[in-house]
Each structure stands twice: as C-alpha cells, then as structure tokens.
Design a protein that fits this description.
Layout: H1 5-15, H2 27-35, H3 39-61, H4 64-81, H5 91-106, H6 110-113, H7 129-132, H8 140-151, H9 155-166, H10 171-178, H11 183-201
Helix pairs in contact: 2-3, 3-4, 3-5, 4-5, 8-11, 9-11, 10-11
C-alpha cells in the first residue's frame, strides 16, 4: 500500500540524503587535514559543498551575486584562519552556519530586513524525488500536493522542515542555526509544521 503523505514525511529521517561515496573521508579526518595545512583537503571541502551552500544561500536571501560572494568569503576566511579553527565532525553544518552569518551581515540594514524571513515569501524550497529517494512510493501528483502544502507554511516552518529533512541536521544544530531558545522550542516548531502539513494534505 502506498504511504500517505504524512507517513512519507515521518519516514524522511531514515531516508534523508547523505552525500556518500565508498571512499568518502570522514568529516573529522578531512577537517583535520585541512586545519593542518592540506590544500587538497581544502579543495575537496570546497568542491563537495559549494553547490549545496549556493542552494542554501539562495533560499535564504534570493540574491545570486550576494550568495556567491558570501560563499567565497566563507572559504577565504576558512583558509586564512584554519590554524585557529577547532575540530568538527559535521562540516556541512559548520559551513551552513558560517554562510548564514556571513549573508546576514552582508545585507545592508539586516536587522530591519530580517523581517523578510518572516513574510510569506521567505525561504522557498520544494522537495524532489532525488531529495527523498522514495520515488517508487510517491507519484508526481502526490509530490505536487506535498510541495503545494509546503508552500503554504510560514518561512520559519519551511526553514525547519528544510534543515531537518533535507540537510539532515539535529534539533540542537537547527536550534543554533535558527537562533531558537531551546531544543524543546525547536521540536515544538517542527511539530507545528508537520501538523499543518498533515491537516492541509487531508
């Protein structure tokens, strides 16, 4: 029996995309190689995450030029400051956090424009079959219904759905990225987002 829309959403955590290959170096090892001066490790990190960072930056601010500039500045800073960087076992989360901070600083009058993320147009994204890896269980019509429901979410709810199901981040990481008070608050927002989708898809 095909899964319902909501069961598909609940299944995502086990099905989330992970950029893997049999030869992929563990994040902690690759990061330490980079911190210890390996240019090859730096290039590997850049090539592995540039496209994902670009897609994320565009969702945040919708400005291609600012997004590309922000990514370049993030990697420029990383290379110049690598001897001062601490260890990490989750490079993607570290880079997302750096880019978000960089983009928010770049936008003029950000504190006033921060409201952009709170209006109905903020943080747009759609799920694809490639992202959820269950195309045999979710046909095109159901995918379109799911994406229409996601489009009705508030930007904050879209953002948390994106981080959890697409970027594979933990509640603690999401809390840090979104500037929320606690993991409990973060879980509540996720619950409200899923509850809205479930109600809409009914």
């Amino acid at each position: 029996m095909p899964l319902s829309h909501f069961n598909v959403l609940k299944q995502f955590p086990a099905e989330r995309i992970k950029a893997r290959s049999v030869d992929k170096i563990p994040d902690a090892t690759l990061w330490d190689q980079f911190r210890n001066g390996s240019d090859a490790a730096f290039i590997e990190i850049y090539e592995q995450y540039f496209d994902r960072l670009f897609a994320y930056g565009m969702r945040l601010i919708g400005d291609e030029s600012l997004t590309k500039d922000g990514i370049q500045e993030v990697f420029f800073d990383l290379k110049n400051l690598r001897k001062k960087l601490g260890p990490t076992d989750h490079i993607r989360f570290y880079l997302l956090k750096c880019l978000k901070r960089k983009l928010f600083r770049q936008r003029s009058g950000w504190e006033q424009r921060r409201a952009d993320l709170l209006d109905k147009e903020g943080f747009g994204f759609e799920l694809s079959h490639e992202q959820i890896l269950i195309d045999q269980q979710l046909d095109t019509e159901k995918m379109e219904e799911l994406n229409r429901a996601i489009a009705e979410l508030s930007p904050r709810k879209k953002e948390i759905i994106y981080y959890f199901f697409y970027e594979d981040l933990s509640y603690a990481e999401i809390r840090e990225l979104m500037g929320m008070d606690s993991d409990h608050t973060t879980r509540n927002l996720m619950y409200k987002a899923l509850a809205f989708l479930r109600k809409t898809l009914r």
